Amino acid sequence: MKALSQQRRHPLAVLVLMVLALLLSGGLYAVATTTNEAKAQTESYSAQDLEEGEKLFIANCSTCHGLDGAGTPSGPSLVGVGAAAVDFQVGTGRMPMQANGPQAPQKAPQFSPEETAQMAGYVATLGPGPAVPEEEYLDVTQGNAANGAKVFLANCAMCHNAAGAGGALTRGKYAPSLMGVEEVHIYEAMQTGPQNMPVFNDANITPEEKRDVITYLKTLEESPNPGGFGLGALGPVSEGLFVWTIGLAVIIGFTIWLTSRSA
């Protein structure tokens, strides 16, 4: 009987069982990790903050994003966007959005920093996502501007311009200027990929490299313009057009002056 049972056992049975065991253990690990991440992100918020954040969310955000944050036809789901996305969107005044358009423009924030943090904490409870960055990654004195320039030129300059002055995109969209933007919001934008921007997670750009990028941008803010008029730092095309327009106006004016004298 023992020999018969061994003959009936399929040679791949052991392999199938091993694969199923690996999938099961991997799934359990992923669930446990997700739960721990969500718990760790909300531990920095008090129960009162989370309660106040929920009230603010329901009163100001639920119309578009749903009472449970799962989204509606008017707004996307916020489950898993993390506290960083809320801190960026609300902290820069992009949300709540005043009117539908190609993208939400930056404007004066409608909520205080405390209220913004409370809403960010509440949204973090909906699902794990990027957290508000730690202060050590916002300290530009610890960053490397030269390395930040390399990272920025390789990943960001095609939209934001090499000098961070911003630029036009398609269908009425645009990459905003990065001059004068707070360090935390630059970091959060790289983390969360707002509007048309791709997400640069820690596997793409490390936290240290993000700090280097911020250092580079802050260095640009403090650097004087050796060329006189900056013209938005949009490059030789705008500079050539400016010179051509002014030169042509001077030639036309001089021609009119000569014609009037001869007449």
From TrEMBL:
<dbReference type="GO" id="GO:0005506">
    <property type="term" value="F:iron ion binding"/>
</dbReference>
<protein>
    <recommendedName>
        <fullName>Cytochrome bc1 complex cytochrome c subunit</fullName>
        <ecNumber>7.1.1.8</ecNumber>
    </recommendedName>
</protein>
<feature type="domain" description="Cytochrome c">
    <location>
        <begin position="48"/>
        <end position="127"/>
    </location>
</feature>
<feature type="binding site" description="covalent">
    <location>
        <position position="156"/>
    </location>
    <ligand>
        <name>heme c 2</name>
    </ligand>
</feature>
<dbReference type="GO" id="GO:0020037">
    <property type="term" value="F:heme binding"/>
</dbReference>
<dbReference type="InterPro" id="IPR009056">
    <property type="entry name" value="Cyt_c-like_dom"/>
</dbReference>
<keyword id="KW-0812">Transmembrane</keyword>
<dbReference type="InterPro" id="IPR009152">
    <property type="entry name" value="bc1_cytC-su"/>
</dbReference>
<keyword id="KW-1133">Transmembrane helix</keyword>
<feature type="binding site" description="axial binding residue">
    <location>
        <position position="65"/>
    </location>
    <ligand>
        <name>heme c 1</name>
    </ligand>
</feature>
<keyword id="KW-0456">Lyase</keyword>
<feature type="binding site" description="axial binding residue">
    <location>
        <position position="160"/>
    </location>
    <ligand>
        <name>heme c 2</name>
    </ligand>
</feature>
<keyword id="KW-0408">Iron</keyword>
<dbReference type="InterPro" id="IPR036909">
    <property type="entry name" value="Cyt_c-like_dom_sf"/>
</dbReference>
<dbReference type="GO" id="GO:0016829">
    <property type="term" value="F:lyase activity"/>
</dbReference>
<keyword id="KW-1003">Cell membrane</keyword>
<keyword id="KW-0249">Electron transport</keyword>
<keyword id="KW-0679">Respiratory chain</keyword>
<keyword id="KW-1278">Translocase</keyword>
<feature type="transmembrane region" description="Helical">
    <location>
        <begin position="241"/>
        <end position="259"/>
    </location>
</feature>
<dbReference type="Pfam" id="PF13442">
    <property type="entry name" value="Cytochrome_CBB3"/>
</dbReference>
<feature type="binding site" description="covalent">
    <location>
        <position position="61"/>
    </location>
    <ligand>
        <name>heme c 1</name>
    </ligand>
</feature>
<dbReference type="InterPro" id="IPR050597">
    <property type="entry name" value="Cytochrome_c_Oxidase_Subunit"/>
</dbReference>
<keyword id="KW-0813">Transport</keyword>
<dbReference type="GO" id="GO:0008121">
    <property type="term" value="F:quinol-cytochrome-c reductase activity"/>
</dbReference>
<feature type="binding site" description="covalent">
    <location>
        <position position="64"/>
    </location>
    <ligand>
        <name>heme c 1</name>
    </ligand>
</feature>
<keyword id="KW-0677">Repeat</keyword>
<feature type="binding site" description="covalent">
    <location>
        <position position="159"/>
    </location>
    <ligand>
        <name>heme c 2</name>
    </ligand>
</feature>
<dbReference type="GO" id="GO:0005886">
    <property type="term" value="C:plasma membrane"/>
</dbReference>
<keyword id="KW-0472">Membrane</keyword>
<comment type="subunit">
    <text>The cytochrome bc1 complex is composed of a cytochrome b (QcrB), the Rieske iron-sulfur protein (QcrA) and a diheme cytochrome c (QcrC) subunit.</text>
</comment>
<feature type="domain" description="Cytochrome c">
    <location>
        <begin position="143"/>
        <end position="221"/>
    </location>
</feature>
<keyword id="KW-0349">Heme</keyword>
<keyword id="KW-0479">Metal-binding</keyword>
